[in-house]
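# step 3/5: fold
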Amino acid sequence: MRRSGEVWVGAVVVVGAVASMGLVGCGGAAPTVEILEVTPEALVASDDAKDDLSVVVRYSDPDGDLGEGVAAIHDCRVDRLVTELAIPRIANADGVDHGVPIEGELTLVLADVGAVTAAAEPPAKCAELGATAPVGGAQVFCIVLIDAAGNESEGACTAAILVSP
């Protein structure tokens, strides 16, 4: 199943440009992600005005290369239902070259969430991130940020969201 989405970048903060110059060459630094807000609390797959999920996340990236990576949104109702949203450039080329740490917020918009029959157990990646079996038809969505070098964040999951047909 293919879904579309958008990523909005806001409140980008470059942290300690001068102090971080010593981090150059450390490499392999994974970003972090924390979910701040999820709207709406329930989706209606058959109503185009009510089938988009918006997730605001806070990120930090110790070497500044999160931009041009991806946000992978795992729909924990079924296996292999993952939407990857391209993250636009955040830090300038000089900041990335020097490994300048960045932090800020991203708004991830998962458009057109469809109706699917939820599996009895969550997919492996979702279970690894703490998701459990669906309750009353509601299930979580988990976010993993992957920077331009391929380093993955640990991930974070929403509260359970009911997706009605």
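# step 4/5: annotate
Residues 78 and 119 are 5 Å apart (CA to CA).
# step 5/5: archive (pending)
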